[in-house]
Amino acid sequence: MTSSEGGKILVVDDDSMSRRLLIRTLSSAGFACRESPDGTDALESVHSDPPSLLLLDFDMPGLNGAEVLKRLRADKDPVIAQLPAIMLTGHGGEESEVRGLEAGANDFVTKPINQAVLRARIETQLRLQAMRVQLQLQNDELEAWRVNLERDLAAARLTQQSLIPQKAPLLEGWDVAACYRPVIQVGGDIYGWLKMADGRTLFWIADATGHGASAALMTTLAKLLFHHGSVEHNEPAEIMRAVNSDFRSIFGARSFMTAMCVALDPVSGRASVVGAGHPPLLVVRTGADTEAIRSSAPPLGLLERSDFSETNIDLARGDAFFLYTDGLYGADNGNTPRLTSAGLAEVVRSTAATAQELITRVIEQATSGDGAKALADDVAAVAVKRINPEEKIPTV
Question: Is the pTM here over 0.85, yes or no?
Fold first, then answer.
C-alpha cells in the first residue's frame, strides 16, 4: 500500500505543533492521518482501529515510544503485533536508535524531519507490509492446498488398499506371501491373483510410471485390465496382449507400465511366464542356482503390437518364484550399493522356510538391515513357494 492507495497513518507525538505539521505534510502527500497525544491513547487507538502504519515519537511522558512498541509487538493479534512503525527522535545518538530498534521499530527518522525522506520511508514500509500480507495469503492458500492434498491422498490410499489383496489365496500345497510399500500414501505398484477358467491361478504384478495419485489411478486401471483380459482369454500371453491393447488405446504412447504375470497350475507345478519390460522373475530352486526369466516384450503401452512370448517352468517341491518391482533395487546412497537383479538372485538363493521369510529377507537386504527404513521407490513383491510334504506352513 502506498500514499496513492490511501495508507492510514497514526501520528503519535506529545507536541501538538509537531503533530499538526506532520499531519499537514502527510495529508498533502495523499495519506489519511489521525493523531494521538501520548502512548496510552495510541495503544487504545491502535486496538480500536489498527492503522496501516505508526509514526511514533521516541520521547514522550508516561509511555515513551519504545515502551509502546514493546506492548504492540507482544500483542496476540498478528495484525497489531506486525504493525509497521517508524520511530521519530530528536536525538542523533545511536543509543536511542538501538533502543527503538530493539523495541521493534521498522525504521528511524531523526528530527528535524526531512519531508522527502519521511515520505520515502513511509512508502517503503507500506510496500513491505503489503508484501508481507500477500505472502501470508499465499501461505494460507498453500496450507489449504496441502490439507486438501493430504485428504485426497488419504482417500486414494484407502481406495488403493481396497484393490490390493489383503489375504493370500488358498492353494493346496502352496505358500503365498506379498508385500506392498509405497513411497508416500499411494504408489504406482500393484499386484494381484485371480482364478483362470482352466483352474490355473494367474499371479500378476505391474509398475506404473510416476508416483502419487496419478500413478495410483493407473494401478486401478491395471487391475481392471488384467481382470478383463483374464475373462476373455485363457493364456497369459493373450492376457498380456489384451492389457497392452487396452492400455495403449486409452493413453496412446504417453504413458507406459511394466508388468509380469505367471499362470500357475497348482496341481502339476507347471507355470507359464510372460513379462513386459519388467524386472526378471526369479525362480528359487532347492539346492540349485536361482533362475532369472526376463521379459520378452517392452513395457505395456509403448508399442501397438508386441511379441508376448511365454516361458514355461516346472516347480518341484520346495521351489519358489519371486515377482517384484524395481523399487527393491533401491538407490545408491554412497555407503551401500544398490541391488541388481543378479544381486537379488543371490539374496533369494538360500533356502527360505516360507514365502513370507523370503520376502522379509529381500526387504532387509534392500534396506541395509533396517526393515523399517524408507525406500527410494515404491516396492511390491509376491513370493509363491511349493511346499514340501514334510514342511508345515504356520497359519496366521
Answer: no
